[in-house]
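thread from #wetlab-drylab

HS: before we spend reagent money on co-crystallization trials with S-adenosylmethionine, can we at least see a predicted complex? here's what I'd submit
DV: go for it
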Amino acid sequence: MSDKHRKTIRSFVRRTGRMTPSQKKALSELWPIYGLEFTSSPSQFDAIFQMPQPIVLEIGFGNGETLVEQASQNSDQNFLGIEVHDPGVGHCLLKAHNAGVENLRLIIHDALEVLEQQIPEASLARVNLYFPDPWPKKRHHKRRIVQPEFVELVASRLAVHGTLHIATDWADYAEHIDEILSHSDRFSCTHRREHDGDQPLDRPRTKFEQRGLRQGHRIWDWCFTKSA
Ligand SMILES: C[S@@+](CC[C@H](N)C(=O)[O-])C[C@H]1O[C@@H](n2cnc3c(N)ncnc32)[C@H](O)[C@@H]1O
């Protein structure tokens, strides 16, 4: 992704949510265990994780409950989470510590810059993008993270046969995702489901998914496989 393009996508607003004292404490005491600082050159993940295993990246993990659950259920994989919302990271650190997971690392930074600069090419087995900010107003659609350049960037960071999993509860964003991915020759759609929260592909329900379901939204779930 060119710098020019990246500057036009700012897929998040840094919310100044209040941190609870335990989240603050987690950020100072548990960050040295689970945290990875952003670097502008590719990281050596084999030296960062305890075991050399396939790496699953979650972009925008929110409060991290789904991420920690997946990490604790899949000890044969390494999990990397990227989020910009500090209270969510604090929450995730507490959950990770309570669950005793060792195969998880977190980065607090813009995921687009991390993908571009810190994640080596062909290094990921899977990328999860669960309930990305929908930016519902038409004039904000350009801020949606799923854009042709994002799809291209993710494809370059995935290993052969790597997968991209996306879920949303916004009908209009679902159409946008179908449209963008159908024009990509880097991925083929291996699963697509539209449901009422009763048939997620292979993930625990996320916080934003539960919120969407309470509001009567439907859920769209995709798995895209990187083309050979
Ligand atoms: C709607 S929330 C969904 C959170 C979680 N995945 C869930 O389903 O509960 C989207 C999250 O993505 C994060 N986010 C958006 N753009 C991001 C970016 N470029 N880098 C890192 N995090 C980002 C936001 O801070 C927010 O927490």
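DV: Strands lie at 55-59, 78-83, 104-108, 124-130, 158-168, 187-195, 219-226.
HS: ok that's useful, forwarding to the group
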